[in-house]
Specification:
By secondary structure, this protein is an alpha/beta fold. It folds into four domains: about 35 residues; about 130 residues, Glutaredoxin; about 300 residues, no CATH class; about 30 residues, no CATH class. It has 14 helices and 22 strands. A seven-stranded mixed beta sheet has the order 8-7-9-10-22-21-19, with helices on both faces. A four-stranded mixed beta sheet has the order 2-1-5-6, covered by helices on one side. Strand 15 and strand 16 form a beta hairpin. The radius of gyration is 32 Å and the shape is globular. The chain starts with a helix and ends with a helix.
Amino acid sequence: MENTMEAKKVKNRTQLLIYILVILGLLAVANYLGVKWFKRIDMTEGKEYSISEPTKKILKGLDDIVNVKVYFSKNLPPNLTRVSTDVKDILAEYKAYAGKNLRITWEDPAESEDAKSMARSLGIPEVQMQTFEKDKAQVMAGYLGIAVLYEDKKEALPVVQNLQNLEYDLTMAVMKVSRKSVPKIGILKIDTLPPIPPQMQMQMQNQGMPETTEQKLAQAYEALRANYEVSTIDISSGAPIDSSIKTLIIPGVGNMTNRKLFEIDQFFMKGGNLIVLADAVEVSMQMGVRAIPQESKLFDLLEHYGVRVEKNMVLDGQCGQVTVPQKYGPFQMNVAVPYPYFIRLGQDGFEKANPAVAPLTEVIFPWASSLTMLVDQDSTKKSSAVKATVLARSSEKSWTVSGYYDLNPQQKWAPASGATLNQHNIAAHLKGDFSSYFAGKSIPSVNDADDTLSQIKLQPSPQDANRQIAPGNKGGNLVVIGDGDFVSGQNAIQGNLAMLLNLVDWMSLDNNLIAIRTRSLKDRTIEADLLKENSSKPNMIRIANILVMPLLVIIVGLVIFIRRKEPVVVVSQEKTEEKK
């Protein structure tokens, strides 16, 4: 009997050991497969805790080893420990998709002078971080940087703070060090000022002088230079535009001659991409706010390509705001009021099938003109060589004005008598086989600023003796936006810059980074129809946010209080037995 019991014990222990070994084996296999085929279930709205498909594509496409060196201090303040954890998580996911072509190392530069020197040489500075210990605020020195290295190229994230942009910053760094060449982008010089030293530019700006192209588009230049080699293109001398430039941005329509049109046209005919910001009505701030209709030869060029910029301005009931001073008794305050001339587009205003604009959530177009397509918009038709796609359109609560423009923000907004509410095209993409505006004609003279096509000199300039006119292109790409100001000065808000950068990426590079850049942009604005009288939706939501949560807390508290006040009946067991 004892032998039988002992045998059973041994058998049970053996089975238990086998079960444990099997479970451990299954866990080991699951862990290996989890590393080999990484998968994460992310139920957040924007998939904020998992990397996007474009990043996976870039990581899987690495053909050589990229080193990621993380310089983080080990003893970080409690408020920064989450940063370290999130960086570890995202880099683990990067490693899972890149495999052996991504090497990740962690180091605390404070441990040695050599490490500190190396961090500084890679662009990782020592930063001051605030911490709270023993009820006192203290400042400690530490490191929160990442360096990405490949061969002799390096990119640095000096201080990792914004976790929302971490994936974009990391992926962009990996892409920049591993790519073979830097794409070139050109921005056409639209001012007539001669080259001016930066010191003089600042002085002129302080004196109220006109801004240069670089000053007007300073934020766009800065954003583009993070990914591209950007240069200002001056074609006033009649020199051809560098053919190595992928995309040329034309930020306005003024100061155009036939010779300038010729250089733009030939750049386009020889395979370059064009992004034209062209509003037909300019708003001038000199001597008061005035709307001035534009006359430009560029409009003729665009019509030849297949799109007309209408000489009007679009107003939209779904709009942005401007700040105006208002008096309240003896006091004056700045108050934000709706301004329909500032067209505000949410996700519904953009073409869903286009990767450059589909992820956008909020863009504001100030004083924009509408576009009319002169070519087919149906890609299935073969009646024309060029097809048009509308990228952005105003809401159904929009209308246009022309001739007289009342720009006063403090007025009762309503369409003029006879005007109808309808959607209007703000941005469009034209693609196909374009013909040259100058096909069959002579090359315009450089010196004749006021020439017309009917007055072009037959005798070419010496510099044009060997030039041939390209009669057309194949598969050309043209984007036209009916607003020349949406990325200039204070209008260069995050969403507006994102749209320009997305378009440049889409036409010049690829669309891998587009979805990542716009991932953290979310439009949380409460929609309100300016034209609808007594629109109560925004106020109802605000009142609910203010009152509902406190009321719920009060109700829960009352329920708990009432339940505690209920009498508790205790029946004695002894008395119950006596009664029995």
